[in-house]
Amino acid sequence: MRKHLPILFFLIISFTAKAQSYLGYFHDNYAGVQSVLFNPASIADSRFKTDINLFSISGAVENDLYGVKLFDVYKDGYDFESQSKVSPKNANNGLANFDIMGPSFMFNIAPKHSLAVFTRARSVSNIKKINGYLIDQVKDGLDQSENFNYNLGNPNGASHSWGELGISYAAVLFQKDQHFLKGGLTAKYLQGGVNAYVHGNNVNVSYVENTVNPKQGALISNGEVTVGGSQDWEKNDDYEFDANSRGFGFDFGLVYEWRPDYDQYDLSRAKPADNNFRDLNKYKLRFGLSVTDIGSINYKNSKVDTYNVNGVVTQQMIDDAEDLYDFLNEHYTKISTSKGVKTNLPTAIRADADWNMYNKFYLNLNGDINLVSDSKLNGYGIADRVTLTPRYESRWFSFYLPMTYMEYSGMQAGAGLRAGVFFIGSGSILSNLVSKESKGADFHLGMKIPVYEKQFKDTDGDGVIDKEDACRKVAGPAENGGCPWSDTDKDGVFDKDDACIDVAGPKENKGCPWKDSDGDTLLDNVDACPTVAGPVENKGCPWPDTDGDGVLDKDDACPKEAGSAENKGCPDLDADKDGVLDKDDACPTVAGPAENKGCPKVTKETLAQLKVEARSIFFTTGKATLSDAKKGETSGRLDAIKEILKNYPNAKFAVNGHTDNVGNAKANQKLSEARAKAVMDLLIEKGVNPANLTSNGYGSSKPVKSNKTAAGRAENRRTEIVYLGNL
């Protein structure tokens, strides 16, 4: 058994791999059915009618203990132990993944709904928290080791192989303007294969060498070790297929696309040749999020054994053991045994962002997060990673350059291409070409039959696609099978619509020449009354007289109301309702008797009121300015006079000024004139028509009382408004 230990560790750790399939390829918009493995929503609104996978495989290795120049490993004379670079730690890790996809297909079942069915065989192996110093010490056997003492803690390893039959459904969930959201769900039937695992609990080992007899050196250990598998490997180390070891799993995901140019893909404006733009990638930015591998397989025939590994062994004991169980049972104590176990899938969160930089050039950022605990018994999962992938993609060709930071193996760079029915690539090929200490490698390849959505051909551009066009090189309407209609008389009206096939005529008259049915020199096409003669000026119709007042509507300002010709066909008005028509009314807005031409007469009462108001206008002594002391009262009197005068628009009034006899007669005359004009100007300012007013000054020549008394002189200092007659 001794000589098999280094091989075992080499296979488990040095050639273990990241659980990541098709690195750099699966975010291609033309990845087809492979893309459903990472996000089931991706197949909705795809660029495929259908995509059939014939066969594809992906494998990968990753560890953080051994680094090699990968392409030297295959050369003759390569010594792994001396030429590899060992990076031991207290907790080294490794992962392994192989994924074979069998016959699978996807297709669009409706414009917004897609379906995929796939078959898949998978193998994932993990080894976590293994002490690298111990591995380096015992790789040649205990007899080649030096003294050591290591606390191994809780090392953990698991390997699982199984098969899947999956069905995925995806649909467009929301679409409005630039926002586009789709979702998908995968349900998987799982068939168990091989499952094996080992788990340590507080394990410590130390070695004391024997310089006289190396094989008698003592390996002292303590702690617990649990080993188990999908069957009782202790009784039978040949694999036994168990059809009853099965389970179910599922994936789900969402994809959001930002489509700023959504108006360019408006289906209402799509031509038949556009095929509803199904062949185009319409997003500027795409974001995807999914959770994969939720589920488990129930191994009913599994066996789990836990051993207390407190004890001492030598190299000779290891050499004499037939197998692992023989070694454990002979040298350690089994403390528990159980049967039946559920093995969970490697559940993970996957996210990506895809940017359409320009035309067919894209930049993708994606990553995985493992959701399986490192310390879980029989727990295995993927490695956390982040990948940046620039790519060029078209319908029949893609080229991509993934650059990845892996949880254990660090940075790596690769390349891949898709050409028609074939794709091949590696996420680490470029870094492995130059690195002298590669800690990971991966590859993927496959063959498929893609059937793409595409634009239809329309050679003559008539909107009838070639496969439905009876005249592919000559444009014609769809209703005539894509062929042009005939036009015998060459009048631009097709025979199918032409009522006069052999005589040219306008389209408006069904291809027949126009007539002049009423003989008024206007052809029927421009004659508004083709059956009744009328003047050209009225478009061939007779002039109407709607209200029958003898004034034709064209000259009638009131065509629906009878009136006189003198008033342009409108009835004569009497706005002030005084019985005098406005045309004869000198005062059309103020009622008055006919004998006064419709204007009101100035009454004695009106004149008396004017006299009262005028005598209450007060001036500054010896001046023609209003008295400041009684300015408010005077203004009110002027307003009252204005309101009286506006009722007599055709009457003429005089504003007369008078003084007493005190002082110089000439001065009194000028003062009376100035005061009369001042009152007239103030009334005009308030809105009285200037044509209705004049002003006069009479000095002291017309006293109304004796100037010998103060009371008499006060009466003589006055302003009067008198009626002079009509204008």
Structure description:
- The strands form three sheets. This protein has a 21-stranded antiparallel β-sheet that branches.
- It is elongated and about 170 Å long.
- The protein is mainly β and 727 residues long.
- Helix content is 13%, strand content 36%.
- The model is unreliable at 1-19 (pLDDT under 50).
Helix content: 10-25%
Q: pLDDT below 50 for ≥5 consecutive residues: which ranges?
A: 1-19
What Rg, in angstroms, do the CA atoms define?
A: 56 Å
Structural class: mainly beta
Care to count the β-strands? Answer: 26
Main beta sheet strand tally, sense and closure: 21 strands, antiparallel
Q: Would you tell me the overall average pLDDT?
A: 86
Distance between the termini: 144 Å
Brief synopsis:
With 727 residues, the chain is mainly β.
Descriptive key words:
727 residues, mainly beta, 60s Ribosomal Protein L30, Chain: A, 2 domains, 21-stranded antiparallel β-sheet, 3-stranded mixed β-sheet, 10 helices, 13% helix, disordered N terminus, cell outer membrane, membrane, DUF5723
Topology:
Layout lengths: L3 H11 L33 E16 L2 E2 L12 H4 L1 E2 L5 E10 L2 E7 L2 E18 L1 H7 L9 E6 L2 E21 L2 E30 L9 E12 L16 E13 L26 E24 L2 E3 L1 H6 L3 H8 L1 E12 L3 E11 L2 E10 L14 E9 L3 E4 L2 E4 L3 E4 L1 E5 L2 E5 L2 H6 L5 E13 L151 H11 L16 H15 L5 E8 L6 H21 L7 E5 L12 H7 L1 E9 L1
Parallel strand pairs: 24-25
Antiparallel strand pairs: 1-4, 1-5, 1-23, 2-3, 4-6, 5-6, 6-8, 7-9, 8-9, 9-10, 9-11, 10-12, 10-13, 11-12, 12-14, 12-15, 15-16, 16-17, 17-18, 17-19, 18-21, 19-20, 21-22, 22-23, 24-26
